Amino acid sequence: MPTNPLHRLAAVALIGAALAIGACTRSASGAPTATGASGATTSPLTGQQATMEAVRSALLTQTAQAVQGGGGATATPTTGTGGVQTATPAVGTPSTVVALATATRTPVPVPTLTVPSTYTLHEGEFPYCLARRFNRNPEDILAVNGLTNSSILSPGDTLTIPTSGTFPGPRALLSHPTTYTVVGGDTIYSIACRFGDVDPMAIAAVNGLSSPYTLTPGTAIQIP
Fold first, then answer.
1. Model pLDDT for residues 177-219, shown as the tens digit of each residue
2. What residue spans in the chain does CATH classification 3.10.350.10 cover?
3. CATH number of 172-224
4. C-alpha–C-alpha distance, residues 167 and 222, integer Å
């Protein structure tokens, strides 16, 4: 008997629905599994799963390489806003320059000897001593003061010093500059006479002595 078109359309719809349900069932249950050499079955990866697996494999490879190289990863600080820049010290042999302080004795100005017109004797001084010191002829000193070789003089006596004439012969009795050790009875004046042409005020200056220029036996003093 003739088929109703509506019945035919419904049958086609049912067949299409059945085919769609079957396709969904096969997709959900998965594709056919592959059997490996060991007998275990593995499922083939979808496109998305393959991509994720490749990323994971690359990360594992980078991590393994970092661990093998030099015992660990080294963080390198970067310089930027708010960052800290680390200065790398230069490698080399350190050298230390030590400035050695050298004790230097400051020269003390020695007063210039001036030949006076008159001079008052001190303990240990006599006319011949003054003649050597002031570079005058001793005979002239005796003559201008009415003295002879046998005249006796005392500390405090004042003598006139000639304005001309020179000492006949070497004026120095002992070599100087040098160091002298004081003995009992010494004064800067008697020590100056011992050396001949030394000024007693120069002895006081180089040794930092002030009036009355007291000396202690056993003390070493400088003779300019």
1. 999 999 999 999 999 999 999 999 999 999 999 999 999 999 9
2. 113-171, 172-224
3. 3.10.350.10
4. 25
